[in-house]
């Protein structure tokens, strides 16, 4: 073999080996760094850009795609201890010509965290309103989406600032009284009685606890490698003290049933997607505080947790502004079922 040809193969092999070795080293030694790179890659691949907005001395971090147009913008609020990037697996299915905004909730990821802040559901709704005004998202009514804790905040926001909202989607929302106790609710009651706040199921501190939390929150069952579980824990551990404080705030009497208490004030057409979530408050046939709704079936999806990216899809869930307008004409849509609203 020609020497030049051999050198070319050696150089090519070395060039390929370096990223492979870097990946293996990251996977084994720094799995949390690999997770951050994963989110960075998907943001770029999906065209999501990260920006910051400031209200007085308070900073919001958010990602967005597209620009405001004749279709309503969409603001997405994540759940407890998550961040804006949790929506990436949903964003990839949405039309690229929609204006999407995913914000880090108060105290999460790149948004300001302050011991003096009000982390009750009502307090978070006020902060989100400040963010909306910062980026002038409410120049025209927008579609608001929230999941779990973010669903609770989204519902309260829609009740408190009805002029901002053209339509609302709540995915496994917290903030409603449960008709039956789920396994998760029973665990919470046991923790309250024992006062063991260090064992909250949604605040893992070991790979094993992380695996249990993923089972609790996800419909799809999948095997997660131990190193990835460790990486997920490593990312969260520096924030666990804040998560405990936040969790106690949102399950306190002031916030526990915030959505329920504000439902009668929600005027916007509302879609509720409830895939048998761990909050345990499946709507049955009709939630009594849904405003001006004729009796009709509110159907939960086929099963799930509280993570929308891991829930079973449903063909009736709208994904475009045109479908949202159809919802407005039809009234309230819940998991693909349409319930007409009288005048």
Can you give keywords for this protein?
11 helices, alpha/beta, seven-stranded mixed β-sheet, about 15% strand, Rossmann fold, single chain, about 350 residues, disordered C terminus
Question: Could you explain how this protein is built, in words?
Answer:
Residues 293-343 are annotated as: Disordered. The chain is of the alpha/beta class. The chain has one domain (31-338): 3-Layer(aba) Sandwich (Rossmann fold), CATH 3.40.50. It has eleven helices and nine strands. The longest helix has 27 residues, at 3-29.
Strand and helix map with partners:
Layout: H1 3-29, H2 31-45, E1 49-55, E2 58-65, E3 74-77, H3 88-91, E4 100-103, H4 121-134, E5 142-147, H5 149-160, E6 165-171, H6 183-194, H7 207-217, H8 226-236, H9 240-250, H10 258-262, E7 270-273, H11 321-330, E8 332-334, E9 337-339
Parallel strand pairs: 3-4, 3-5, 5-6, 6-7
Antiparallel strand pairs: 1-2, 2-4, 8-9
Helix pairs in contact: 1-2, 2-8, 4-5, 7-8
**Which runs of at least 5 residues are low in confidence (pLDDT < 50)?**
21-29, 282-305, 310-343
Net shape: globular
CATH superfamily, please?
Answer: Alpha/Beta hydrolase fold, catalytic domain
Q: What is the C-level CATH assignment?
A: Alpha Beta
CATH T-level fold name:
Rossmann fold
Q: Residue share in helices?
A: 25-40%
Radius of gyration, CA atoms, in whole angstroms: 22 Å
Task: Give the oligomeric state.
Answer: single chain
In percent, how much strand structure appears in the residues?
A: 5-15%
Trace the largest sheet across and list its strands. Answer: 1-2-4-3-5-6-7
Largest sheet: 7 strands, mixed
The SSE string, one letter per element, is HHEEEHEHEHEHHHHHEHEE
| CATH architecture field | 3-Layer(aba) Sandwich
Protein name: acylglycerol lipase
Membrane topology: Single-pass type II membrane protein
Keywords: Endosome, Hydrolase, Lipid metabolism, Lysosome, Membrane, Mitochondrion, Signal-anchor, Transmembrane, Transmembrane helix
Enzyme class: hydrolase
């Amino acid at each position: 073999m020609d020497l030049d040809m051999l050198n070319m193969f050696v150089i090519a092999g070395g060039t390929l080996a370096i990223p492979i070795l870097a990946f293996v080293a990251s996977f084994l030694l720094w799995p949390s760094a690999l997770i951050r790179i994963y989110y960075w890659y998907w943001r770029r691949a999906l065209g999501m850009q990260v920006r910051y907005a400031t209200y007085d001395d308070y900073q919001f971090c958010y990602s967005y795609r597209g620009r405001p147009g004749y279709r309503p913008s969409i603001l997405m609020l994540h759940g407890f201890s998550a961040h804006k990037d949790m929506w990436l697996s949903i964003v990839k299915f949405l039309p690229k010509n929609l204006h999407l905004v995913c914000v880090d909730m108060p105290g999460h990821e790149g948004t300001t965290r302050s011991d003096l802040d009000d982390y009750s559901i009502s307090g978070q709704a006020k902060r989100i309103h400040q963010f909306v005004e910062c980026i002038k998202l409410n120049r025209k009514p927008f579609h608001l989406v929230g999941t779990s804790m973010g669903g609770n905040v989204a519902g309260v926001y829609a009740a408190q600032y009805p002029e901002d909202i053209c339509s609302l989607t709540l995915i496994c929302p917290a903030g409603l009284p449960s008709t039956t106790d789920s396994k998760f609710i029973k665990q919470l009651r046991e923790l309250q009685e024992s006062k063991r706040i260090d064992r909250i199921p949604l605040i893992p501190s070991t790979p094993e606890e992380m695996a249990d939390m993923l089972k609790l929150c996800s419909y799809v069952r999948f095997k997660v490698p131990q190193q990835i579980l460790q990486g997920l824990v490593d990312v969260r551990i520096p924030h666990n003290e804040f998560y405990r404080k936040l969790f106690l705030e949102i399950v306190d009497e002031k916030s526990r049933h915030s959505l329920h208490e504000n439902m009668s004030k929600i005027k916007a057409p509302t879609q509720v997607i409830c895939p048998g979530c761990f909050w345990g408050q499946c709507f049955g046939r009709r939630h009594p505080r849904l405003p001006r709704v004729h009796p009709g079936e509110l159907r939960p999806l086929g099963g799930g947790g509280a993570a929308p990216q891991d829930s079973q899809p449903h063909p009736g869930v709208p994904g475009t502004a045109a479908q949202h307008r159809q919802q407005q004409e039809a009234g309230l849509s819940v998991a693909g079922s349409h319930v007409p609203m009288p005048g």
